[in-house]
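hiii, so i know i said id send this last week but things got crazy w the move. better late than never?? heres the sequnce for the chain we talked about at the cafe, plus the structure i predicted for it. fair warning i was half asleep when i ran it
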Amino acid sequence: MINEFPQVVTIGGSDSDGSAGIQADLYTFFARKTHGMSILTAAVAGNSYGIHAAHALPLDFIDAQFKALNDDFELKAAKTGMLADATLIHNVAENLQRVNFGYLVVDPVISTKHGATLLELAAVDTLKAELLPLADVTTPNFYEAEILANMQITSPADQMRAAERIQQLGVKNVMVKGQHGIDANQEMVRDYVLLADGEGFWLEGKFVNTDHINGTGDTLSSIIVAELAKGNSVKAAIQLAKQLTLAAITHEIEVGHKYGPINHWAVAD
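okay and structure toks below
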């Protein structure tokens, strides 16, 4: 039957070295047996040393991509990745309200897991007011959760409270990821999940001390998207995403000289 196979889409930027962005999303969609599509918002020239140039796509071209996919395909789930500024966030939010792309997972991409800022802080208000209320799931890392919840997280109770504050912004389900690289002796990372029905639970995984972590957040959120598209529950999708992303970090592949990608073969069944 037409459009019977589960179809998903990533909305974000292209990472030329394939370690993150829409490339990591598409690898993950393929590994999780869904057909992945993309709406490109920007492109970067980068490698394992860093990003060396970036170019944003025109808004009318972004509009055209949304329309083209919506006119033909029956998308079951979508995700957003890095959206560089308030104008782009507003454009994507408006387009998402014009189309039917099923579940929406927002990876907020405000800062790295080590606290380096990626999104203009002036755009955070637009993210909170326009995009998060459309989301079924959001997956902020530790520092992004602090920014979205407007609070410091210094304890497990704070992590739980941050999830509650983020949920109050209108997003249904929240996964607040734990802090990485706390000290040289860190052994575990604990993520807190707050579901739409009020259930909260912790997910624990070992801390892997490696430079091969590019695309971790992209991969985790993309697994959630793929599993939702296949009919799994939000809880089951998040639990599996945690498990498989840890496997992708643990089983390293040697690519690049510095900050390498995670292993997407480990995400497949």
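btw The domain at 7-267 is CATH 3.40.1190.20 (UDP-N-acetylmuramoyl-L-alanine:D-glutamate ligase). thought thatd interest u
miss u guys!!
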